[in-house]
Each structure stands twice: as C-alpha cells, then as structure tokens.
Specification:
This protein has 207 residues and is of the alpha/beta class. It contains 6 helices and 10 strands.
Length: 207
C-alpha cells in the first residue's frame, strides 16, 4: 500500500478490527485505513448530515469558542478560512462578528472553490485532516490559500500505542481514515512550508 501522506510503500499492520484494517507507514508513521475500507462518498455525506453542528447547538458553539481562544489576540488576523467546516457556518459567522473577513469551504456543504483563490491570515482545519481522501490535493489547496505569514491551526487527536488503539474512541468513526503522530504532523507542516510552533493537547498551530 502507498502511504497517502508521504507516498512510501513501506508499511506494516498496526491494528485491525471487525470493520477495518489499519496500516502504519514505516517512513512517516502515519496510521491509515486502506482504500478498500473507505465509505462511499454517499455514505460519508450521510454521516456528516447527521452531525448536530448547528448554530443553535450551544455545546458546539462553546467547543469552537474554546478553540478560538487558543489563538490569543485575534487582532493579528484580518482574514480567515474555515477549511472543511461541515454544514455549519457558525465559526465563520462568529469570526465575522469579531471583525475578521472570514470565509468557509467544505467539499460537501460549501463547495464554492472561488474562496480557495484568496490568501488568508488564518486557516482553521478543525477535525478535518483525519477525513482527507486525497492528501496531495488537500496540501495543494492549503498552499494556494496561504502565505509565509499565514497561521494554520489543525485540530486532531494523536493516536495511542498499538495495544491501546482498538479501544481508542477516535478510530470508531468510520469517516476517520488516517491518524497522526507528532512526526507525521510535522511532515504535514513541512509540506505546507510551516513549522509546528505550539502544541496544546490536540491543537497544533503552524507558522
């Protein structure tokens, strides 16, 4: 199997369960699900449709506001892109209220690619990277939207040791098809011509 992140063909079985197999790249340490176990795009969208990430969901609002607080003083940013937002535009709308020229993109729900033609001071990739089907396209899209001064915030959970993986909640979501270690996220940052400057639990800030 070819690693979706670094294209290495060197991998080993990391884990398996009744529904899927999981391989670990021996080059970049990404753990990924082979294509044959991926949901169809129809089934994937159906699962996203079931998410309760609406602007009326107070718990969801508080979750996103906590993330935004990690960025500190927002006056350092004039524009932002919520990349892979899902159905909700709450984050975009909230950042607009705070004075940012904020946009939203999602391949299923907000698929106007014209927003990807602009450059942004801040790009938010909140629980998105574990869903990506085409990594090279994903990286290229982010590169087009960013400059050397752009801050990119990625939120994803790092995978545990193999002996704990089968009980790990994060891999139970069948739309999650790759899982990261710090070294594999550092490779993502390198491909984006960035460095990870802050690690705060499952939040990673790239500059």
């Amino acid at each position: 199997m070819i690693c979706p992140l670094c294209s290495s063909i060197s991998s080993e079985v990391f884990s398996n369960d009744r529904k899927r197999n999981y391989l670990k790249c021996l080059t970049c340490s990404l753990v990924y699900v082979p294509d044959s176990f991926h949901l169809t795009t129809v089934d994937e969208k159906r699962r996203y449709d079931s998410h309760n990430n609406s602007s009326e969901n107070v718990e969801y609002q508080e979750y996103l506001q906590t993330i935004i607080q990690k960025l500190g003083n927002l006056s350092q940013f004039s524009s932002s892109l919520d990349f892979g937002s899902g159905k909700s535009t709450y984050l975009r709308d909230h950042l607009r209220e705070l004075g940012l020229n904020s946009q939203v993109y999602d391949p299923y729900f907000h698929s106007d690619k014209s927003v990807l033609e602009s450059k942004y001071d801040l790009i938010l990739v909140i629980e998105v990277i574990e869903h990506v089907r085409d990594f090279q396209s994903f990286i290229e899209q982010l590169r087009v939207c960013s400059t050397s001064a752009t801050t990119i915030m990625i939120k994803t959970a790092l995978y545990p040791e193999a002996k704990f993986f089968n009980d790990w909640y994060y891999k139970r979501d069948l739309t999650h098809i790759q899982f990261f270690s710090l070294p594999s996220l550092e490779l993502v940052a390198k491909k984006l011509e960035k460095k990870i400057v802050t690690v705060d639990g499952d939040l990673f800030i790239l500059k």
